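Renewal narrative, Specific Aim 1. Our central claim is that a sequence can be written position by position from structural information alone. The example that follows is taken directly from our test logs and has not been curated for this report. It begins with the structure tokens describing the chain, in the order in which they were read.
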């Protein structure tokens, strides 16, 4: 039986557990440029509060390390200095950049953290998009193969002028995974941590699965195109409704195709399920850029990965493990 079918059976067959051995605790705060939420089941109020505070502190730590908007972050130092020399970085940041590079190779460049070489030309708050001339000048710097990593020195260097990197397509998933590991180390066995569109579930919802809705960006907020029962998994959604502006009837959003330097147009929303949030975060961006056909072909090659795609026309596509009977 497929894992999702087993979870659905669990939802129908398992009664809610008694609340005598604990209760749910919840915290929500702003971090990493989004809303971070942590929910966990615990028998001890003080331990639960300390665990949730530790999660939020971990999110802020990762943001301080990997944000392209913080001048003092390691990532910002790379962008300032790696065009002139190799920049040594922390083991954590180097490992995440290597993981991003592996997904770039897997996807033929559909996922590429050097997209920031053109991505920085957009300002979604102010409604600014680059013209053709600016894109033509900046696009040669977009090429993950020109991001030079030296494992021995644990350093990063840019081999092309004008190159920048951004970890917005993978860092929140990494932070969510770090938070779940932290909770598990504290003895928590049932929890949910989310940062924007990236969520990881530890265990289940105390005897039942979590019900997670996937919205169609063109439907009213609060409505779901698909509802999935989930337990002990990660889920990430990338959509053209997260950061965008419209001009002359055209939607300019933040999911940029590394090939064209323009927003990818084949999908409205991509949701990926998998074993960890770092993977699902990066793959939701990847599949959005690839579009439904090529994106599903990639997903079908990857063990333990499933997808729900809402295409540009509003049609829903499922990977084989989720397809309705």
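The sequence written for that structure reads:
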């Amino acid at each position: 039986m497929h894992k999702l079918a087993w979870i659905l059976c669990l939802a129908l067959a398992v009664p809610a557990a008694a609340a005598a051995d604990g209760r749910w605790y919840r915290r929500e705060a702003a971090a990493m440029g989004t809303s971070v939420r942590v929910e966990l089941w615990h028998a001890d109020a003080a331990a639960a509060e300390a665990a949730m505070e530790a999660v939020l502190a971990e999110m802020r730590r990762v943001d301080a390390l990997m944000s392209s908007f913080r001048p003092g972050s390691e990532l910002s130092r790379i962008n300032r200095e790696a065009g002139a020399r190799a920049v040594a970085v922390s083991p954590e940041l180097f490992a995440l950049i290597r993981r991003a590079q592996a997904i770039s190779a897997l996807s033929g460049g559909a996922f590429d953290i050097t997209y920031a070489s053109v991505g920085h030309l957009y300002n979604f708050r102010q409604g600014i998009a680059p013209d053709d001339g600016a894109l033509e000048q900046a696009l040669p710097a977009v090429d993950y193969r020109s991001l030079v990593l030296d494992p021995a020195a644990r350093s990063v260097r840019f081999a092309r002028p004008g190159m920048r990197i951004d970890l917005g397509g993978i860092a929140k998933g990494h932070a969510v995974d770090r938070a779940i590991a932290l909770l598990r180390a504290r003895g928590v066995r049932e929890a949910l941590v989310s940062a924007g569109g990236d969520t990881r579930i530890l265990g289940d919802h105390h005897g039942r699965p979590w019900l997670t809705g996937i919205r169609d960006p063109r439907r009213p907020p609060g409505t779901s195109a698909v509802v999935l029962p989930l337990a002990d998994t990660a889920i990430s959604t990338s959509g053209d409704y997260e950061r965008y502006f419209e001009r002359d009837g055209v939607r300019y959003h933040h999911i940029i195709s590394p090939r064209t330097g323009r927003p990818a147009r084949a999908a409205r929303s991509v949701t990926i399920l998998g074993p960890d949030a770092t993977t699902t975060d990066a793959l939701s961006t990847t599949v959005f850029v690839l579009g439904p056909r090529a994106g599903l072909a990639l997903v079908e090659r990857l063990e333990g990965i499933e997808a729900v795609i809402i295409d540009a026309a509003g049609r829903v596509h499922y990977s084989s493990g989720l397809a309705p009977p």
